[in-house]
């Protein structure tokens, strides 16, 4: 029982002190500088120390030696609990992602020979998407000889932009790309 407990402690320390290189931070044995500018766990500067001495100070404190500024001369290393640091950093990133608003681009397709009722239905969808804060990509596909009537497609897109001008702005004017005419609308900023 005592041997297993001792072995598990050894494995835990070994995992902690093994060479770890995540998020561009060099930790413990992966640091390759001869001398480092050392900062202790409270944030006090201890000055420039040889790497072996810095590693032994970190080991005595039962913490990790982390290279926080590898580009500096000499590199700046800090004594800290690296696992706790990574955990707190991931929590901060998760909070930042929660606060971000992801803007999606919704696409609505038309044809140049679309009927009035269909235009009204698609217009309702465009308004709904813009009110939800999404961008809308309006595209018209010209088939066969329809490509000769690009003005019909442009009229439909301009009409859509006019109908939603109070809730949306034209981010990209109607432009022909191959057999598709594309216009992008974005919601108005509040």
TrEMBL record:
Protein keywords: Cytoplasm, Initiation factor, Protein biosynthesis
Gene3D superfamilies, sorted: Translation initiation factor 3 (IF-3), C-terminal domain, Translation initiation factor 3 (IF-3), N-terminal domain
InterPro entries: T_IF-3_C_sf, T_IF-3_N_sf, Translation_initiation_fac3_CS, Translation_initiation_fac_3, Translation_initiation_fac_3_C, Translation_initiation_fac_3_N
Transmembrane segments: none
GO molecular function: ribosome binding; translation initiation factor activity
GO biological process, one term: ribosome disassembly
Matching PROSITE patterns: IF3
UniProt domain Translation initiation factor 3 N-terminal: residue ranges: 27-96
Signal peptide boundaries: none
A Gene Ontology cellular-component term: cytosol
Record's subcellular location: Cytoplasm
Translation initiation factor 3 C-terminal domain ranges (all copies): 103-188
Sequence similarity: Belongs to the IF-3 family.
Function statement: IF-3 binds to the 30S ribosomal subunit and shifts the equilibrium between 70S ribosomes and their 50S and 30S subunits in favor of the free subunits, thus enhancing the availability of 30S subunits on which protein synthesis initiation begins.
HAMAP family: IF_3
Quaternary structure, from the entry: Monomer.
Name of protein: Translation initiation factor IF-3
Species for this entry: Desmospora activa DSM 45169
């Amino acid at each position: 029982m005592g041997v297993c407990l001792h072995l598990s402690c050894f494995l835990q320390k070994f995992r902690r002190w093994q060479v770890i290189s995540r998020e561009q931070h060099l930790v413990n044995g992966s640091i390759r500088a001869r001398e480092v500018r050392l900062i202790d766990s409270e944030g006090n500067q201890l000055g420039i120390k040889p790497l072996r001495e810095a590693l032994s100070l970190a080991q005595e404190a039962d913490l990790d030696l982390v290279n926080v500024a590898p580009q500096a001369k000499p590199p700046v290393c800090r004594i800290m609990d690296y696992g706790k640091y990574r955990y707190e950093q991931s929590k901060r990133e998760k909070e930042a992602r929660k606060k971000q608003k992801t803007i999606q681009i919704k696409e609505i397709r038309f044809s140049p020979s679309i009927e009035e009722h269909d235009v009204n239905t698609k217009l309702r969808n465009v308004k709904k998407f813009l009110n939800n804060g999404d961008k809308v990509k309006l595209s018209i596909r010209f088939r066969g000889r329809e490509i000769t009537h690009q003005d019909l497609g442009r009229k439909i897109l301009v009409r859509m932009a006019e109908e939603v001008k109070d809730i949306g702005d034209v981010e990209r004017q109607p432009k022909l790309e191959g057999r598709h005419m594309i216009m992008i609308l974005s919601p108005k900023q509040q």
